[in-house]
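Below is how a single chain appears once it has passed through the pipeline. First comes the sequence as given, then the structure the pipeline wrote out for it. We keep one example in the README because the format questions we get most often are answered faster by looking than by reading.
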Amino acid sequence: MIDRTNLYRIAPFAAYVFFMILEDLLLKFGWQADELRLLYAVKIAVVAGLLWAMRSAYSELRWPDGAGFRIWGAALVAGIVVFIAWINLTADWMVMGDAVGFDPRDNGEIDWFLVTVRIIGAALVVPVMEELFWRSFLMRWIEHPNFLTVNPAQVGIKAFGIAAALFALAHSLWLAGLFAGIVYGLLYTRSRTLWLPILAHAVTNAVLGIWIVVTGNWGFW
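Resulting structure:
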């Protein structure tokens, strides 16, 4: 039986993965990608609802005392660096599988509701959900099953490397994912506050979303 403390951090991530699997299955059964675009809104709503319902359990989300420009500045720089890596590490050998992408256009016209939902989900919900799972839970749990007792600064290279590698395998741009996992992991272990990787992750996803809309590179979604 899964410990409740673990479950609180696994459940939002598991819900997100469930909807990804559901989308893949529906595509295989003949649904078209444009028929499933609203599924993302449902996915984000479910994940956000779970995070909100369990918010009192996330002790690692307490805002650190005295945190200010240092955290915001580091998050901004790191987030932009990961974004630059993400759109450039795209050679064939750096890509795993085929990404369907997310095209919010109808007859060539952008559906701004879909774009807004996508950017809000990617920038505000996904970073909290993923950092709670990958960095706060999984990386520290590999170090010791009683993960809440593990100081992020005490995480060893084995736990750090496994978490970063698994994070990479969860993305079609696996090398970019590995780079992002290392950067976000270092931010967490060095600062010992989960807010730094969350904010950096949010910057990456927000800037990526804006870049996708401006350039029309829908495959990156």
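Residues 4-220 form one domain.

See the next section for the split statistics.
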